[in-house]
Amino acid sequence: MKRAKVNQGGDLQEYKDVYVIGECLDGRLHPVTLELMGEGRKLANQLKRHLGVILLGDDMDEALEHLQDYDTDVIYHLKHPLLKDFSTEGYVKVLNDFIRGNKPEILLIGATSFGRDIAPRLAGRLGTGLTADCTKLEIDPADGKLLQTRPAFGGNLMATIICPKNRPQMSTVRPGVMERAHKLGEGKAHLVTVIPELDAEDIRVALVEKKPPAKKQVNLIDARVVVSGGRGLKTPEGFRLIEDLADVLGGEVGSSRACVDAGWISHAHQVGQTGTTVRPEIYIACGISGAIQHLAGMSEADYVVAINKDPEAPIFKVCDYGIVGDLYEILPAMIEDYRKRKEEADHA
Amino acid sequence: MNSIVCIKQVPNTNEVRINQETGTLIRDGVPSIINPDDKNAIEGALKIKEELGGTVTVITMGPEQAKAALREAMAMGADRAILLSDRAFAGSDTWATATILAAALEKIGETDLIFCGRQAIDGDTAQVGPELAEFLDIPQVTYAKEVSVEKGRVRVTRYGEFGDYIMEARMPVMLTAIRELNEPRLPHVRNIIGAWEKKEIEVWTMEDLTIDPTQIGLKGSPTNVFRSFVPVREKQSEIIQGNTPREKAALLLDRLSSQKLV
Amino acid sequence: MNFDFSDAQKMIRQTAQEFTERYVAPLAAELDQTGEFPRETFGRMAAHGFTGIGIPEEYGGSGGSDIEKVIVVSELAKKCGATAATLSIHMIFPAVILKFGSEEQKKKYLPAMADGGKISAFALTEPNAGSDAAAVKTTALKDGDHYILNGTKCFITGGGQADHLVVFALTDPSKGLKGLSALVVDKGMPGFSIGKIEDKMGIRASETVELIFDNCRVPAENLVGKEGAGFKIAMTALDGARIGVAAQALGIAEGALEETVKYMKERVQFGKPLTALQGLNWYVAEMATKIECARWMTYRAATLKIKGEPYTKEAAMAKYNASETALFVTNLALQIHGGYGYMKDYPLERMMRDAKITQIYEGTSEIHKVVIAREVLK
Question: How many CB atoms lie within 10 A of CB A209?
Fold first, then answer.
């Protein structure tokens, strides 16, 4: 079996610069690309090196034009008709050839399902170490190596990983954590088009069909964010507001038992003793008093936010952040503010 | 249709608690389980066996206690179980682990499907499956949420953040299973008793495998742990102040944003 | 003296726990309300080999013994006393056939009772024959190659759902108990009908019915063992069944304690969780200690039975003790939950209602004390 090896004692000094691999599939530039560029710039500056962004695909003028406004030294467009659609082996082959040729010391990829598909394969082919799902990256001032910090044990432990003897040091980076790259102005970054070698025989998995996103089913158990409504909503229409906030935050809608009993929402959304027990990262309880039966269903949430008119409501005793106020004023304000922040971030 | 399923025995991280005083993990008394995604992989292989015949071999790299995981897989219906165990394997990162598994799979010989779980709940890397496929030079499809075998080809619905992809591959192919793939069966009592009383587990060591020793174990791992720490969170309750709903909403979003929650 | 469970037993327990979480717990409250027999759950229990525990593999069973029965029944009982009772009582018939049946009967009934998913029942009790089993009046008079069954049985668990029942009747009324015999009756046999379906305080999803035999013709080959062996068969069966009830009571108590621990950590009064209150902590200590005792007494009785040693006294003690424990624990658990314990939102009131029957059926606590005293005073 012919394969790469690690710790071969090559000259690490040959490897310079920070490269990030952007993700642009089906014409959609994944926001993590800008986050990788932002982080990459930070690292490149500390190392006094250059930052390069790699995009794979065929014709992708729109994405490239968009990226050129952002802070990077160079954009490499690996262009080939066979790269138009995602394929593990297509992407890994061309990236392997390119990286071996250009020898960056650091290579970052977004920890999306696609990033995490190709990164280990690429690391395996390049003969180097890979650290998954990094939430913090730093340069060790002592010797310039990359310190890659990431969660393990389901988030119960943070580990800082190093790759001392092999290059490039590869990391997949968790989306939504790093700061995005700054906009410098129109078309400042230098664009280089590379035509890689790639044949149809190199790709052994065929993409047969792309399915549009399916209609979402209620999935409280896996939800990272749950926004719940209670009796304080006063009317069933209040759940539209709850849904809006949940949509905007990418979460699921929950409910106290009172609303389900009143027929305002189906039992599938009920959180509590006689409903579902949820363990989200953030639970936002709107107009919910915090009766023990409800707490039984959400006390395991990492963060609890409570919004209620009644300052004496028991929910305030178990929340991390609370607002005493009218949810019909607070929620719209939150939604609007959040939308504005997101827009600013997208256009930054 | 022969499948090989690579599994890992892991501590049940849902039950791991933090010692707030020392800032360390309390692992005592935490039960060991088959990594959940790996159970989906086992179930996936068993379903294919039920449909098309063949055998299911389950393999794991681990210490002696990992045999319990293999027994559970056999109780579910796996035909053959192999434990890869040797002191030389200790301290292996994903590169080294994939190297060892690849050597074992080469020894087992030709197979149609290699099934892995997407990600282990202790390491959380999701790297071993693809690295293994790379070393064996076989194609891969990850994040499998539906798998069917038709006319000698494997058809996989692969999860994507913005919509699924349907992919097709010839065999052999490596698949990584996610939770949505299936609901792993609970073993029949007869098979549980049989797994312990009747079935044998093969144990392979360095002597049984052809491995470059420079590519495995602590020394052969390209990545090392520099340091680790337990994130301890002080639970503080804050009632957000403000003169208007807008102000309060803004402050709340600031707080949540600083915690990287939104 | 090894108190450890084997690896296989630990895995069986883990499987029973997951099974209970997945299939049993979500239905418990609703089944209690409707009193509906858990047919789907029973089918699943058969599919996972629970119903075949104690039946050897050569007869299509799962293997295993009374230890595995206690493990599975107690795990089920933690979340649903009715489902646990249904399984535990179903297991009496195969035990009878295994010990006293002919080879043909074993081949005919045992696979059906294991993976086959057929349901069975044990029919001894009559309106005038509860603790006083000798007062049985149902007759089974020989007529050619049939027995003609006449009489009524009451409070028969699963009797309305059962595909096969073992019915105790007098083949020779002049001999009293020495004339009692055991016969297998099948569902739908002409002359066999279901009478009243009881509306119970607890284990409501476990169906309890009246059986009416009116010139019911039962083939002679359905006789289990010899004529006149009925009383011995019944008593042997009950000895084993007692262990099952002890397991059920144990599980109910364990489930109630688990709920209490969770509640005490979550419920805040006087600015602190209930775990800060010493008085309540003392209750927890009492509950846990009694459960520990019930647990090991039950497993010990099962162990003696498996070894073929006399176990009547230990089984009676285990059942009597476990049922008292179940009442004690569920009552206290409900009390600790305060007003919430009284509400149907929480399972405590159901657990307490489910616990009560364990002091009564398969021999009342009073009968058991008679049995125990007799053994001790021998």
Answer: 11
Q: Cα-flanking dihedrals φ and ψ of residue B146, to 5°? A: -150, 140
Shortest alpha-carbon distance between residue A322 and chain B (Å) = 5
Note whether C48 contacts B: Cβ–Cβ < 8 A. yes
Of residues A74, A70, A66, the one with CA closest to residue A27:
A66
CA dihedral (C133, C138, C139, C140) positive or negative: negative
- Please report whether residue B227 resides in a domain: no
Tens digits of per-residue pLDDT, A109-154? 999 999 999 999 999 999 999 999 999 999 999 999 999 999 888 7
Assign A2 a pLDDT band (cuts: 50, 70, 90). low
pLDDT at A348: 61
| Residue B261 domain boundaries | 232-262
Question: B109 lies in a domain?
Answer: yes
Q: Which residues of chain C have pLDDT under 70?
A: none
Q: Which residue's structure tokens are 């107009």?
A: A287
Task: Give, in words, the CATH class of C120-228.
Answer: mainly beta
- Residue by residue, DSSP assigns C49-90 as TSTTBTS-GGGT--B--HHHHHHHHHHHHHH-HHHHHHHHHH
To the nearest 5 percent, what fractions of chain A are helix, strand and coil? 35, 25, 40
Q: Within chain C, which residue ranges are assigned CATH 1.20.140.10?
A: 231-376
Q: Which chains touch B (3 or more CB pairs under 8 A)?
A: A, C
Residues of A in contact with B248 (CB under 8 A): 323, 325, 330, 333
* Displacement of CA C281 from its chain's centroid (Å): 32
Contact C29 A317 (CB under 8 A): no
- CA A256 and chain centroid, separation: 30
Q: Is residue B225 part of a domain?
A: no
Q: Does CATH number 1.20.140.10 belong to domain C231-376?
A: yes
Assess if CATH 3.40.190.10 describes domain A225-347.
no
Q: Give dist(CA B168, CA B153) in Å, integer.
A: 7
| Contact call for B228 and A159, based on CB within 8 A | yes
CA distance A178 to A135: 7
The answer to whether B72 faces chain C, any CB pair under 8 Å, is: yes
Please list every residue in chain A whose beta carbon sits closer than 8 Å to the beta carbon of residue B135: 1, 3, 124
- The chains in contact with chain A, meaning 3 or more Cβ pairs closer than 8 Å, are B, C
Q: Residue C198 phi/psi, 5° resolution? A: -70, 150
Residue B28, token pair as written in the block: 């005592």
Q: What is the pTM of this model?
A: 0.90
Q: What is the domain count for chain B?
A: 2
Q: Which of B101, B135, B223, B127 is nearest to A125 (CA)?
A: B135
Could you tell me where in chain C the CATH 1.10.540.10 domains are found?
A: 7-113
pLDDT tens digit string along A47-104? 999 999 999 999 999 999 999 999 999 999 999 999 999 999 999 999 999 999 999 9
Structure letter (DSSP) for residue C126 = B
User: What's the fold here for domain A12-202?
Assistant: Rossmann fold (3.40.50)
Cα dihedral across residues C324, C327, C330, C331: positive or negative: negative
Task: Tell me how far apart the alpha carbons of residues B93 and C9 are, in angstroms, rounded to a whole number.
Answer: 34
Pick the CATH number of C7-113 from 1.10.10.10, 1.10.150.120, 1.10.540.10, 3.30.420.40: 1.10.540.10
Domain ranges of chain A: 12-202, 225-347
- Determine whether C362 is an active site residue: yes
Is the CB of A274 less than 8 angstroms away from the CB of C267?
no
Residue B257 within a domain: yes
Record: contact C268-A317, CB cut-off 8 A: yes
Q: Are residues B94 and B114 in the same domain?
A: yes
Task: Please give the DSSP secondary-structure letter assigned to residue B64.
Answer: G
Contact A292 C29 (CB under 8 A): no
B240 and B180 in one domain?
A: no
How confident is the model over B213-221, as a mean pLDDT?
A: 94
